[in-house]
Amino acid sequence: MRAMILAAGLGTRLKPFTDHHPKALAMVNGKSLLQRNVEYLMSYDITEIIVNVHHFADQIINTIQENKGWGANITISDETHEVLETGGGLLHAAHYFEDEENWLVMNADILTNLDLHKMIAADAAYTLKAEGDLVATLAVTNRSSSRNLIFNAAGTLCGWKNNSTGEEKWANPLRDPNTALPKAFSGIQIVHATFLKEVQLHGKFSLIDAYLQLAQHYAIHFYDHSDGILLDVGKPESLEKAATLFK
Fold first, then answer.
1. pLDDT digit string (tens) for 82-140?
2. Whole-number Å distance between alpha carbons of 166 and 154
3. Residue 231: pLDDT above 80?
4. With CB atoms 3.0 to 4.6 Å apart as the test, which of 44, 74, 104, 122 could cross-link to 69 if both were Cys?
5. What is the DSSP letter of 156?
6. 200: Cβ contacts below 8 Å, ≥ 6 apart
7. Residue ranges of domains in the chain, CATH in brackets
8. How many CB atoms lie under 10 A from the CB of residue 154?
9. DSSP secondary structure string, 162-177?
10. Which residues are bridge partners to 170 per DSSP?
11. What tens digit of pLDDT does each residue of 38-75 get?
């Protein structure tokens, strides 16, 4: 399986560090977030990785070259002309996955002990039972979040809600709201080739918006890893917490 690490973001929540560096190079106990996630993927035998870059792109490229990819074969997806967000970034790197049935995509500022072998097995099971083509399996937890993905009782994506503003987006509105399963997205997903074939968005767009569009006609499932560790290292205080959890 190949993978993509999304490292092009501006990382505004991690200021002042990101005034001079990309968030992917923020350090936790002597290792950058990028190195930790490359090593995390390699621990599951994923050694072919593409990394998208925009903000201080040269720093990421130089660090990868200086460290020889930490043992992985890393390709760069250049977005220096314009940051394309998560969906646009994946679409820009589509050539890297053209011969793949599915692949893993994760945010650079996520640290986790999610068991990818179990998630990959769950995705394979979903593929077998999907009534239509499977687009993706999304890693989620039951943690408190300002935004939730909404799944139905069958475990397929049907909507999204901003809990702070009340804004909602629906692919397939629920007949009975009591059956809704709100989950917090972990920024990790297994994406299938159906995504690249059927997505109708172009340019700059988020993966969530693309999933909501595709969920009208295709299956998108979740994989719940609430029993593990998931840390969004997007703020300075999160780096401090990460240092206590990831040695």
1. 999 999 999 999 999 999 999 999 999 999 999 999 999 999 999 887 766 899 999 99
2. 24
3. yes
4. 74
5. B
6. 213
7. 1-109 (3.90.550.10), 114-228 (no CATH)
8. 11
9. ETTT--EEESS--SSG
10. 159
11. 999 999 999 999 999 999 999 999 999 999 999 999 99
Q: What mean pLDDT is reported for the chain?
A: 95
Spatial neighbors of 173 by CB under 8 A, at least 6 apart, are: 158, 159
Question: Which pair of structure tokens corresponds to residue 39?
Answer: 């090593």
Among candidates 96, 13, 15, 89, which has minimal Cα distance to 48?
96
CB neighbours of residue 121 within 10 Å: 12
Q: What's the predicted TM-score (pTM) here?
A: 0.95
Q: How far apart are CA 5 and CA 104, in angstroms?
A: 9
The alpha-helical segments, DSSP class H, found in 4-143 are: 33-42, 57-66, 85-92, 116-129
Rounded Cα distance between 23 and 4, Å, is 16
